[in-house]
Protein backbone atom coordinates (compact mmCIF):
# COMPACT_ATOMS: atom_id res chain seq x y z
CA UNK A 1 0.00 0.00 0.00
CA UNK A 2 1.18 3.49 -0.74
CA UNK A 3 2.13 5.86 2.06
CA UNK A 4 -0.27 8.06 3.93
CA UNK A 5 0.19 11.08 1.67
CA UNK A 6 -3.37 10.94 0.37
CA UNK A 7 -6.76 11.76 1.82
CA UNK A 8 -9.78 9.89 0.51
CA UNK A 9 -11.88 12.36 2.52
CA UNK A 10 -10.96 14.98 -0.10
CA UNK A 11 -13.03 13.03 -2.65
CA UNK A 12 -16.48 14.66 -2.80
CA UNK A 13 -18.21 11.27 -2.75
CA UNK A 14 -16.55 10.34 0.56
CA UNK A 15 -16.70 13.82 2.13
CA UNK A 16 -19.35 12.83 4.70
CA UNK A 17 -17.59 9.62 5.78
CA UNK A 18 -16.03 9.14 9.22
CA UNK A 19 -12.35 8.37 9.70
CA UNK A 20 -13.19 4.68 10.28
CA UNK A 21 -15.31 4.54 7.12
CA UNK A 22 -12.48 6.12 5.13
CA UNK A 23 -10.12 3.48 6.54
CA UNK A 24 -12.50 0.73 5.41
CA UNK A 25 -12.53 2.18 1.90
CA UNK A 26 -8.75 2.59 1.92
CA UNK A 27 -8.28 -1.07 2.92
CA UNK A 28 -10.06 -2.09 -0.30
CA UNK A 29 -7.82 0.14 -2.41
CA UNK A 30 -5.11 -1.56 -4.45
CA UNK A 31 -1.84 0.17 -5.32
CA UNK A 32 -1.09 0.37 -9.04
CA UNK A 33 1.94 1.62 -10.93
CA UNK A 34 1.45 2.79 -14.50
CA UNK A 35 4.02 3.98 -16.99
CA UNK A 36 3.81 7.28 -18.86
CA UNK A 37 1.62 6.92 -21.94
CA UNK A 38 -0.63 4.24 -20.44
CA UNK A 39 -4.37 4.72 -20.98
CA UNK A 40 -5.93 4.16 -17.56
CA UNK A 41 -9.52 4.45 -18.75
CA UNK A 42 -11.15 4.96 -22.13
CA UNK A 43 -13.93 7.39 -22.97
CA UNK A 44 -17.05 5.40 -23.80
CA UNK A 45 -15.93 2.19 -22.06
CA UNK A 46 -17.99 1.02 -19.09
CA UNK A 47 -16.28 2.14 -15.90
CA UNK A 48 -16.03 -0.13 -12.88
CA UNK A 49 -13.07 1.42 -11.05
CA UNK A 50 -12.29 4.61 -9.15
CA UNK A 51 -8.70 5.93 -9.19
CA UNK A 52 -6.86 8.24 -6.78
CA UNK A 53 -3.50 9.65 -7.96
CA UNK A 54 -0.84 9.18 -5.27
CA UNK A 55 1.98 10.50 -7.47
CA UNK A 56 2.47 11.56 -11.07
CA UNK A 57 0.30 13.37 -13.60
CA UNK A 58 -2.48 12.37 -15.96
CA UNK A 59 -4.11 13.99 -18.96
CA UNK A 60 -7.89 13.98 -19.37
CA UNK A 61 -9.01 13.75 -23.00
CA UNK A 62 -12.62 14.34 -23.99
CA UNK A 63 -13.82 14.07 -27.59
CA UNK A 64 -10.20 13.79 -28.76
CA UNK A 65 -9.12 17.04 -27.05
CA UNK A 66 -7.13 17.65 -23.89
CA UNK A 67 -9.67 18.75 -21.30
CA UNK A 68 -7.59 18.83 -18.11
CA UNK A 69 -4.49 17.71 -16.26
CA UNK A 70 -4.61 15.84 -12.99
CA UNK A 71 -1.86 15.86 -10.33
CA UNK A 72 -1.20 13.92 -7.14
CA UNK A 73 -4.23 14.18 -4.87
CA UNK A 74 -6.60 14.27 -7.84
CA UNK A 75 -8.96 11.45 -8.64
CA UNK A 76 -11.23 10.19 -11.40
CA UNK A 77 -13.86 7.54 -12.00
CA UNK A 78 -15.71 8.03 -8.71
CA UNK A 79 -19.08 7.73 -10.45
CA UNK A 80 -18.05 4.25 -11.62
CA UNK A 81 -18.51 3.16 -8.02
CA UNK A 82 -22.21 4.05 -8.28
CA UNK A 83 -23.19 3.12 -11.83
CA UNK A 84 -22.05 1.14 -14.84
CA UNK A 85 -22.30 3.89 -17.41
CA UNK A 86 -19.67 4.69 -20.05
CA UNK A 87 -16.67 6.81 -19.05
CA UNK A 88 -17.07 10.49 -19.94
CA UNK A 89 -13.38 10.89 -20.82
CA UNK A 90 -10.11 9.10 -21.48
CA UNK A 91 -7.44 9.41 -18.81
CA UNK A 92 -3.84 8.81 -19.89
CA UNK A 93 -0.71 8.81 -17.73
CA UNK A 94 1.36 11.89 -18.65
CA UNK A 95 4.17 10.65 -16.37
CA UNK A 96 4.80 7.43 -14.48
CA UNK A 97 2.07 7.29 -11.85
CA UNK A 98 1.22 5.57 -8.59
CA UNK A 99 -2.53 5.08 -8.20
CA UNK A 100 -4.95 3.66 -5.70
CA UNK A 101 -7.75 1.75 -7.39
CA UNK A 102 -11.06 0.69 -5.89
CA UNK A 103 -13.39 -1.45 -7.96
CA UNK A 104 -17.17 -1.40 -7.81
CA UNK A 105 -17.45 -4.98 -6.52
CA UNK A 106 -15.25 -4.29 -3.46
CA UNK A 107 -16.97 -0.97 -2.84
CA UNK A 108 -20.38 -2.66 -2.91
CA UNK A 109 -19.20 -5.08 -0.20
CA UNK A 110 -18.29 -2.12 2.01
CA UNK A 111 -21.71 -0.56 1.47
CA UNK A 112 -23.52 -3.83 2.19
CA UNK A 113 -21.81 -3.91 5.60
CA UNK A 114 -22.44 -0.22 6.35
CA UNK A 115 -25.91 1.20 5.71
CA UNK A 116 -24.86 4.43 7.46
CA UNK A 117 -22.19 4.94 4.79
CA UNK A 118 -24.84 4.54 2.07
CA UNK A 119 -26.75 7.45 3.60
CA UNK A 120 -23.58 9.56 3.77
CA UNK A 121 -22.88 8.90 0.09
CA UNK A 122 -26.43 9.98 -0.74
CA UNK A 123 -25.97 13.19 1.27
CA UNK A 124 -22.68 13.93 -0.52
CA UNK A 125 -24.27 13.21 -3.91
CA UNK A 126 -27.28 15.42 -3.14
CA UNK A 127 -24.95 18.24 -2.07
CA UNK A 128 -22.97 17.95 -5.29
CA UNK A 129 -26.18 17.97 -7.34
CA UNK A 130 -27.47 21.07 -5.51
CA UNK A 131 -24.16 22.86 -6.18
CA UNK A 132 -24.33 21.93 -9.88
CA UNK A 133 -27.93 23.12 -10.07
CA UNK A 134 -27.02 26.43 -8.41
CA UNK A 135 -24.15 26.98 -10.86
CA UNK A 136 -26.38 26.16 -13.84
CA UNK A 137 -29.07 28.54 -12.56
CA UNK A 138 -26.54 31.32 -11.98
CA UNK A 139 -25.15 30.84 -15.49
CA UNK A 140 -28.62 30.93 -17.07
CA UNK A 141 -29.65 34.27 -15.51
CA UNK A 142 -26.72 36.20 -16.96
Q: Secondary-structure element sequence? A: HEEEEEEEEHH
Could you list the spans in which at least 5 consecutive residues all have pLDDT below 50? none
Give the % helix: 25-40%
Instruction: Report the CATH architecture.
Output: Sandwich
The H-level CATH homologous superfamily, spelled out, is Jelly Rolls
User: Shape from CA axes?
Assistant: globular
* Integer-rounded radius of gyration: 16 Å
How many β-strands, per DSSP? 8
**Percentage of residues in DSSP E strands:** 25-35%
**CATH level 3 topology:** Jelly Rolls
**Spatial strand arrangement across the major sheet:** 1-8-3-6
Largest sheet: 4 strands, antiparallel
Give the assembly state of these chains: single chain
Task: Record the SSE blueprint.
Elements: H1 19-28, E1 30-34, E2 39-41, E3 49-55, E4 58-62, E5 65-70, E6 75-76, E7 90-93, E8 97-103, H2 104-113, H3 115-140
Antiparallel strand pairs: 1-8, 2-7, 3-6, 3-8, 4-5, 4-7
Amino acid sequence: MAGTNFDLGSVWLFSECSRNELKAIQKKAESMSVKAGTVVCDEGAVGLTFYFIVSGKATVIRNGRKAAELDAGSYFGELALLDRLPRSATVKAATDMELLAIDQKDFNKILKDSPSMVRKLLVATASRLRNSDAKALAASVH
